[in-house]
Amino acid sequence: MQYQNWGPQEIAAPVRNQLPEVPVERGMVLEDVQSGWVGAVTRVEKSGGMHVVALEDRRGKSRSFRLGYGFLLEGQPIRLMPPAPRQATAPAGRTASGSVRVAGQRAQVAKASRIWVEGKHDAELVEKVWGDDLRVEGIVVEPLHGIDDLAAAVADFSPGPGRRLGVLVDHLVPDSKESRIADAVMASPGAAGNVLIVGHPYVDVWQAIRPAVLGIESWPVVPRGQDWKTGILAAFGWPHSTKEDIGLGWQKLLGAVRSYADLEASLLGRVEEVIDFLTVP
Fold first, then answer.
1. Smallest Cα–Cα separation from 267: which of 138, 130, 159, 72?
2. Bridge-partner residues for 258, per DSSP?
3. Which helix (H) or strand (E) holds 128?
4. What is the SS3 assignment for 143?
5. In Å, how far are 120, 172, 259 from 76, measured between CA atoms?
6. Which of 60, 109, 145, 233 has the fewest CB atoms inside 10 Å of its own CB, making it the most exposed?
7. With 70 as the cut, is the pLDDT of residue 191 above it?
8. Residue in 2, 76, 78, 5 with CA at minimum distance from that of residue 36
């Protein structure tokens, strides 16, 4: 990233007042002008009465900086501000899923119907994009942590009228283990009309994020036999040795997602299908 001839000596008081004020967000990639440090925002905290932002570079090293002047965002100088406060009432417009936002709408009491996804990351992605819609409908998303025991879990759930179940499965392709499990569940008593199992073709929900959103042409190819998430983080040059590394890597990726437009159509269609199944009489 280039400085564009912007240095600390040029940030005089008259110019500072003209800089755009940008609230800090996790996942935002910034450059500290004075040191040249470039990294993604991993956390913001108060220290000594001032806000401090931690920036983690591509090698996993982190440095902290005081919020304010002296940052570049996408090559442009900004004044970095504290996180925007959460609004009690949702602003008018559209939700992250693209649906019309209902101003002043309260979240509904959770219904008996559920959306099940394979893991925590799937749940966080669905919540980020469709969370506003699901709260209006009173639908809860729950992670399964794998689908090997899906048949037993569905039996325990006891689906029926008014108690429907939508399941979003990773790597649901013909002749896969996942497709055989799904077929067996759908053939079980009580599933017809009350259970819907859909899936996307990706090995992991991470791949449902469009590569262009991350500034890459395509997702790296991970050799067979290697843990996929570990391989992806290694290809990015990010820390990948521990569960904490995996979690931090995912937060960087999730931070790049702003709306449905940042996701692949093959995931969008399946999630919308599940929501319709659970909410349309």
1. 130
2. none
3. helix 120-137
4. strand
5. 35, 43, 23
6. 109
7. yes
8. 2
Distance CA 195, CA 159 (A): 7
pLDDT-derived band at 233 (thresholds 50, 70, 90) equals very high
Tokens 């970095």 appear where?
80
What secondary structure does DSSP assign to 216-259, as a single string?
-SSPPPPPTTS-HHHHHHHHHT---SSHHHHHHHHHHHHHT--S
pLDDT on residue 71: 92
Residue type, 147: I
Written as six digits, the tokens of 34 are 């004075």
Taking residue 223's Cβ as centre, other Cβ atoms within 10 Å add up to 7
**All residues at 6 or more sequence positions from 48 whose CB lies less than 8 Å from its CB, including other chains:** none
Please check the confidence at residue 100 and state whether its pLDDT lies above 70.
no
- Is the distance from CB of 8 to CB of 70 less than 8 angstroms? yes
Judge contact between 118 and 178, C-beta under 8 A.
no
Residue type, 125: L
Distances (CA, A) of 252 to 25, 50, 60, 246: 11, 24, 11, 10
Q: How many CB atoms lie within 10 A of CB 95?
A: 20
Q: Name the pTM for this structure.
A: 0.63
Report the distance separating Cα 71 and Cα 148, nearest Å. Answer: 48
Residue with token string 């040795």 = 241
Residue whose tokens read 């979690």:
247
The order of strands in the sheet holding 114-117 is 140-143, 114-117, 165-169, 195-199
* 271-276: long-range pairs with CB below 8 Å, 24+: 271/126, 271/129, 271/130, 271/168, 273/196, 273/198, 274/115, 274/166, 274/167, 274/168, 274/196, 274/198, 275/115, 275/130, 275/133, 275/134, 275/137, 275/139, 275/166
Structure tokens, 219: 């997702």
